[in-house]
Amino acid sequence: MGTMSKANEYWASAAECQRMADLALTEKDKAQWLKIAESWLRMAVGLEWSRVAAFGAEHAVRGTGQEESTSSH
Fold it and tell me: Which residue range is the domain that position 49 belongs to?
């Protein structure tokens, strides 16, 4: 499973926890569901940031493939 599909899975899990929080009968249950949703969101964001870092590292090593500009503006 790729990184993006895993991140999408995390986003979906967070959304499901939010839905469960909305349906919770007690404030304690609602708070627990929101805490779990927050954990899923942190994992999703962390996974996406690691993709950004990997892209940046690859770009630093390989460059963009474009020729350096020699014109001045």
Answer: 3-59
The Cα 56–Cα 63 span in angstroms is: 10
Question: pLDDT tens track of the chain, all 73 residues?
Answer: 565 689 899 999 999 999 999 999 999 999 999 999 999 999 999 988 887 777 676 656 666 666 766 777 6
Q: Is residue 71 part of a domain?
A: no
